Amino acid sequence: MRKTISLKQGIQGLLSLGVNVKWDELDGEDFQRRVIEDPIRAGEELTRFLKNGARVQVVGYHVIDCDAIPFLLEDWKVESHRKGGQVVWDPTNVVLYLDEAQQNRRLIEGNNLRKKLAKMPVMNANVLDYLLDHPELIPEEWKGIYVYFWGTIYRSRLGGLGVRCLRWDGDRWNWNCRWLGNDWDSSDPVAVSAN
Question: What is the pTM assigned to this prediction?
């Protein structure tokens, strides 16, 4: 059975799903307000707008399932994986965190950094892998550093614990892994959710 909804409900539904409508010639925020206040008049306005050859681009948000089982390397296991629900990718909501021990050319051993990050909202490897699948979403300023995703810690077949990172290799984005027994410095920030 088909459900009938009003224009107001449709626009509100799109907004609640995270669909961002970019209007070239129509003031988007003001139009959204008019849809809520007077959906019939706003619908007529939108119809005229579209009939006049206006361009409307609908941009969907990128949703990352941070509860999914992370990518597994051959003979490796997931030691720990902090689930994070459904994350809508927005680089402005990501902080590249450096512990004070990493700053000013100082080093911190990975096991010590892990303890300090225990209560922080670090992002997991599902975000890393999603970004590798969608490299156009990776901020340019991340080039030249190694961005670590401490929400997923792996154990190698030899028993070592490691954290994967995102890195630019000069031609494309790739991933790498560093063992917790190694040191982290100022070029090794942690991806942390700002929410």
Answer: 0.70
